[in-house]
Structures are given as C-alpha cells and as structure tokens.
C-alpha cells in the first residue's frame, strides 16, 4: 500500500489539491479535518464541557464515527447520521479547532486514521499526518502558501458564495490560527523532517495538482 501524507496550514489548498491528485492517481483521499469537525459537532450538540476530561471521555465512549466513500466523495457518519454538510459550518470549524487540542480526542482518532493506510492506497491530509499519524508514509508533503495569498483566496472564495469579507480581518485570523496551530503542545503543525516543502503561492490549482501527482509518481517508481 502506498501512503501519501499532506500537511500544512488552513487555506493552503490542501483539500482541493489532494482530492484532485487522488482522483488522478486512483488513490483514496482521506480528509482528517472532517473527523475533528465531527467530534466538535458531537460536543456542541451534547453540550459537552470540553474543558472537563471526564465529560470528554464520556462523549468519546458514546459516539460512533465512520467514513464512507460515495462516488469517490468522503462522507462522515456520526451515530448513523451523515453529517458531511453540517461539519462545514463556522461553529463546527471553531469547535474542531478547540477539540483538536485535546489529547484524548487525538488518541481516539489515531487508530482510525492509521487503519485507512493498511487497506488502501491513500492520500491523507491534515496537520500531523507525516509527523504523528503516518511517520512511515512513502511520500510526505508540507503544503503552504503565504498568509497574504491565503487571505486573498479565502476572500475570493467567500465572494463566490455571495459573502463579503474584509481582507485585513481574514488575514489577521489566518495569522492567529497559524500561530495557535503551530504552538499548541500536542501535535503542533510543523513539517516532518523528511517532508517536501511545497509552496502554492505562485502557482494555480491545476499546476499544483500536476506537481503533486509528479512528486508521488516519481517517489514510488
Ligand atoms: O482541515 P480542517 O480545517 O477541516 O481542520 C479542522 C480542525 O481540525 C483544524 O482546527 C485543525 C484540526 N486538525 C488537526 O488538528 N489535525 C488534523 N490531522 C486535521 C485537522
């Protein structure tokens, strides 16, 4: 089985690039952020006090999370309910970020993520895939883009949905989130020592996909 680990900050284009590259390579694309989002959603729905370890244990013992692939698209199922759309709300993003700093939550998701790599060729994206989840991945990529470019892309993405956003505000949020993600105690965002640094600031999505496919094909030949 071939495993490709893709890590990097929010907004660098990880999921769009990874999804398209996985399709070209006929690999399964696993979006691990969706798992953190699902636990965030479960915590919000059950009013779990996430500062309380006992409440977190209780929550984790009660939920059942699984992933299924429909027409190549990843869906997350929480206790028999497909929550794939609901985990994309702003509230779920916030909760995901908070629960992802809890050791018990990371431990809970670790085996689930590792099991995918046992049965399929995968391209998995997240924050700690190359460093913690799949330290023996065949290919490790750390995907970045400058904060300014990421902010510009985010503003354009929101504009497409008819949402007007202030560039300076978006940029400030990105810088704050980068700081928090890379300075947390557990599984901080950082490139694995053997990761290939891949900057998408000056190239298009199509060019990034092409480049990623080439890197993988070159490495596993
Ligand atoms: O990639 P995303 O925005 O869907 O991730 C949601 C949250 O989960 C984000 O705050 C980072 C966190 N996350 C993580 O800590 N480790 C991962 N492997 C994936 C996501």
- Kindly report how far apart the N and C termini lie: 13 Å
Helix content: 40-55%
Per DSSP, the total helix count is: 9
Q: Could you give the order of strands across the largest sheet? A: 2-6-1-7-8
Percent of residues in beta strands? 15-25%
The outline comes out as globular
What's the CATH topology name? Rossmann fold
**The CATH H-level homologous superfamily:** P-loop containing nucleotide triphosphate hydrolases
Calculate Rg over CA atoms.
17 Å
Question: How does the helix and strand content classify structurally?
Answer: alpha/beta
Mean pLDDT: 93
**Total number of beta strands:** 8
Number of self-contained structural domains: 1
Q: Overview of this structure, please?
A:
The protein has helices spanning 14-25, 33-45, 53-62, 90-99, 103-119, 129-133, 147-160, 167-183, 205-220; strands spanning 3-7, 28-31, 65-70, 73-78, 81-82, 122-126, 139-144, 196-199. The chain is α/β, with parallel strands linked by helices and 221 residues long. The chain has one domain: Rossmann fold (3-Layer(aba) Sandwich). The strands form two sheets. A five-stranded parallel β-sheet has the order 2-6-1-7-8, with helices on both faces. Strands 3-4-5 form a three-stranded antiparallel β-sheet, with helices on one face. The two termini are 13 Å apart. The structure holds 2'-deoxycytidine-5'-monophosphate. The site of 2'-deoxycytidine-5'-monophosphate has 11 residues, from helix 2 and helix 4. 2'-deoxycytidine-5'-monophosphate binds next to helix 2 and helix 4.
């Amino acid at each position: 089985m071939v495993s490709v680990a893709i890590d990097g900050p929010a907004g660098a284009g990880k999921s769009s690039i990874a999804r398209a590259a996985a399709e070209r390579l006929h690999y399964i694309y696993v979006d691990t952020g969706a798992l953190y989002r699902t636990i965030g959603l479960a915590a919000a729905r059950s009013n779990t006090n996430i500062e309380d370890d006992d409440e977190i244990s209780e929550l984790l013992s009660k939920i059942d999370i699984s992933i299924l692939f429909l027409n190549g698209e990843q869906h997350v199922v929480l206790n028999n309910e497909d929550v794939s759309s609901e985990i994309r709300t702003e509230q779920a993003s916030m909760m995901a970020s908070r629960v992802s700093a809890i050791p018990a939550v990371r431990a809970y998701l670790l085996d689930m993520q590792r099991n995918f790599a046992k049965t399929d060729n995968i391209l998995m994206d997240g924050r700690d895939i190359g460093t913690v989840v799949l330290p023996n991945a065949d290919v490790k990529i750390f995907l970045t883009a400058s904060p300014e470019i990421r902010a510009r892309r985010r503003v354009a993405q929101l504009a497409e949905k008819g949402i007007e956003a202030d560039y300076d505000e978006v940029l400030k949020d990105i810088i704050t989130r980068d700081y928090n993600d890379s300075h947390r105690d557990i599984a901080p965002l950082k490139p694995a020592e053997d990761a290939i640094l891949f900057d998408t600031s000056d190239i298009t999505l199509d060019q990034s996909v092409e480049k990623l496919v080439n890197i993988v094909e070159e490495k596993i030949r």
